[in-house]
Amino acid sequence: xxxxxxxxxxxxxxxxxxxxxxxxxxxxxxxxxxxxxxxxxxxxxxxxxxxxxxxxxxxxxxxxxxxxxxxxxxxxxxxxxxxxxxxxxxxxxxxxxxxxxxxxxxxxxxxxxxxxxxxxxxxxxxxxxxxxxxxxxxxxxxxxxxxxxxxxxxxxxxxxxxxxxxxxxxxxxxxxxxxxxxxxxxxxxxxxxxxxxxxxxxxxxxxxxxxxxxxxxxxxxxxxxxxxxxxxxxxxxxxxxxxxxxxxxxxxxxxxxxxxxxxxxxxxxxxxxxxxxxxxxxxxxxxxxxxxxxxxxxxxxxxxxxxxxxxxxxxxxxxxxxxxxxxxxxxxxxxxxxxxxxxxxxxxxxxxxxxxxxxxxxxxxxxxxxxxxxxxxxxxxxxxxxxxxxxxxxxxxxxxxxxxxxxxxxxxxxxxxxxxxxxxxxxxxxxxxxxxxxxxxxxxxxxxxxxxxxxxxxxxxxxxxxxxxxxxxxxxxxxxxxxxxxxxxxxxxxxxxxxxxxxxxxxxxxxxxxxxxxxxxxxxxxxxxxxxxxxxxxxxxxxxxxxxxxxxxxxxxxxxxxxxxxxxxxxxxxxxxxxx
Amino acid sequence: xxxxxxxxxxxxxxxxxxxxxxxxxxxxxxxxxxxxxxxxxxxxxxxxxxxxxxxxxxxxxxxxxxxxxxxxxxxxxxxxxxxxxxxxxxxxxxxxxxxxxxxxxxxxxxxxxxxxxxxxxxxxxxxxxxxxxxxxxxxxxxxxxxxxxxxxxxxxxxxxxxxxxxxxxxxxxxxxxxxxxxxxxxxxxxxxxxxxxxxxxxxxxxxxxxxxxxxxxxxxxxxxxxxxxxxxxxxxxxxxxxxxxxxxxxxxxxxxxxxxxxxxxxxxxxxxxxxxxxxxxxxxxxxxxxxxxxxxxxxxxxxxxxxxxxxxxxxxxxxxxxxxxxxxxxxxxxxxxxxxxxxxxxxxxxxxxxxxxxxxxxxxxxxxxxxxxxxxxxxxxxxxxxxxxxxxxxxxxxxxxxxxxxxxxxxxxxxxxxxxxxxxxxxxxxxxxxxxxxxxxxxxxxxxxxxxxxxxxxxxxxxxxxxxxxxxxxxxxxxxxxxxxxxxxxxxxxxxxxxxxxxxxxxxxxxxxxxxxxxxxxxxxxxxxxxxxxxxxxxxxxxxxxxxxxxxxxxxxxxxxxxxxxxxxxxxxxxxxxxx
Lengths: 580, 580
Fold this sequence. Notes:
The structure is a homodimer. Chain A is an alpha+beta fold. In chain A, about 35% of the residues lie in helices and about 20% in strands. In chain A, the strands form eight sheets. A six-stranded mixed β-sheet of chain A has the order 4-3-2-1-5-6, sandwiched between helices. The first copy, chain A, has a six-stranded mixed β-sheet with strand order 12-11-10-8-13-14, sandwiched between helices. In chain A, a hairpin with a 4-residue loop joins strand 10 and strand 11 (about 210-215). In chain A, helix 3 (about 80-85) packs parallel to helix 4 and helix 13 crosses helix 14.
């Protein structure tokens, strides 16, 4: 810092790709502070330093970070801007690495620094990276291979023609793509540079005519790849990106300011190009799955449903004589998914919360925190898998031994919300924000609620969390459209006692026309196939319609999963799917 | 136009006060084009002209406007900006009156003109006003009188202290208020310059210390007014406003760019003041009624409920031997409200839609369109009143003779949505947009919907439509808060056949704590008291909970209205309020 004439430096959790998961080589926050959570930031000033985490990580940060060096502050309330305004001194220059901050975030940070009389300055080289030096892990270099049309359902050339037309509609000559999921989708390729998702770290420039330049480490390029990409896509090394941007002089180039870092905007400005702030043109078409992807999702969920059902049967049998702990549960569930022979990866670290651990929303067990299930308690298991034909994400809450009446009441309130969101029909133009309350009303009526969104988008053998659609209290202007896959996951969390969440994935479909109906409607087809624990259903709280809906779902689970399940599992499943 | 060197001129429907209703003296659009609708615009160019109306007025505009002079275009799709882009020629100067356009609207118009190579220019004097000349009606000059504390519930000084604090929080030294409803609320005064609402046309400057200058025509000032306003409020003539703004040199002054016209921003810029774009600081406190206003609303609704019940009884009796027409219905309903002895005005022109006229959402009968009710049809009546203690707005849909099964089914679907929105409990922070779907889900399930919002705010002896809260599909970031009054008015419209709408006003209240509840919740208390036509209820479509809710509402109506209704009406009401 001193060498570069800086009085401070900003360390965000985000890396160059602004992606959900980071490779170890880019987890600068963990290297600098010891904190390994999935969101956060730190600021180092010449006379003080602070680390910022959200409510999920208040315990973990105290374990991992030296409080003598870092003041621990809230990432959300005030966050980094408030700290800058408070702690920076007039005249100070605070450095940042433009590759790691979105322009939107920088605007807020810059305004806060200005209020303190300080200024922000982009550094030419990140001092952390220099200090990290030889100890820094290598950048990931997983092979990138074709995602075959039997899974992707639409050739890259056709996708690029559509995206190119959207770029033209944005009033641009070209777009810069930096989201790994967009690149994987557009070119029908998959990689493995970050855990839990088959994403290649790369960048691309796509012209309005649909031709593209793909910047990908040559070491990742598998033999079949160049022919797969075809002659409309030029493969180049990541080191050539800056020069390629410089060639865009006098062009209008769209970049997503929520997705791409300030570095791109600065590079385009330096090149004499005009940056057009516009959403990633792949985000919406990627979200709307085509018929082949939807059919793949159905297959992936049927396969995953067999694995999950075997696991649920195991728990039900196991709990009769021994009480497994969370770590064993996670391993056992993964073993059933491995046994499908098709598992590529989990889609996220499995959450298995026994008893009070279930009430910690983003909990996942470690050997240190590991808790054994107890009779008369609840077990919450949130898990998912990556298969070539689809990505899954499912939560089941299970009774271990006999549940209390209160557990059943809370479970049933969550179930009522889940069912309401599963059966709703809605007209075109309806957003996820407009539907969110349907999943909450039964809890609200009982004076309860949950502090997370109700549904997120899910990729097709891509990220398990993807936009642009979302079902949540926060306003979202993206309408739900046919082919979008979303989760439906209301919950209830009793602090210190138990957590409940019921999660299925569902795909938006045109609703079947109905007698007397006047307007075309959309609806949901539930993809996830696994029984919901009937022992936790307080039947008297369900309407006839809700009972019929649950029974129909269970009948479908039995019909689809039963034939592929081993004999003892199939027999157990029949009981688990009996009408309530 | 030619004298001022203009190639065109913009004529919005809005006037200087950007208020829902205009005095005749400010209805420039009607004078220039003949079109008397409540929304619209016109553009006159040197070689062409166009008028813009929305879907409600496509028939009316053809009746009223010479299509040889004006091309008729859609106000919403494309609207004025698209026309300017198409029809203006490079180099043209198109005039506008800065007092009549909000800055937000002007930004869009200016950009469109620019794309055509034309420019917009504010005129010093509106050429329409000059041409109108001696034929122009006088500006309204209704007396302005105190709204006593027994109705207002909070002294103006206390309100001004709160608003002044908000102005300071906005980072401003003062605010300019131009919304008549804000001025009426803040100073506890009422006037009568526009129909259907007790609003004085005036402006005010309020300082952060709570002192104010109120610009009000001296001819409107009633003898008690100066003492009522007190010595912290200086009464001045409207002609002094420009000079007062000029005195704000070097001050920061907040103005609402959605509410106040561009003229204010230009005047402040000319004065060397800094305009801070911020919401009207009265809008939110005005929307959250205090206990005295809520008690007033309850009284007003009880009184209005007696009048409406007398009307419903009259229709029920009348329809047995003769079938009244819409104009007679409107007159009869008003006569019952007059008979309360407390009616100050209607709160809007009564909508009485018989048969197919009920399907025209903003229909109101005239002698020319007047339709007689028919046996076996529906009658939709949407009406409201202004009383000193509150403003009402209520819609009932009535069976004339025996309804068909389909009418009852549609009515019951609308009723289910209405009941869902009436009984919902929700946590603090919930917006009206998040609740809107609750009123639509039963219709959506049947393939139906309605093309209007579900609820609007209502003033306390002020405008019948007020913000900032709203229950609608469109995102709205204002959370519902205790004391806000909103309408609950889902509907269904069968083109060419009938219209159905069920509307009650309800006030947001803290919900009573509930056993096992963990979070404070809000809920609604229904203010409107009048029976819902049981002959249209298809009981088999209602759940037990919905039946109980409807019966409980009717029991409340009977208990509150019965004792104040004449004997024959009370006897009829007992039957109308019997359990379904």
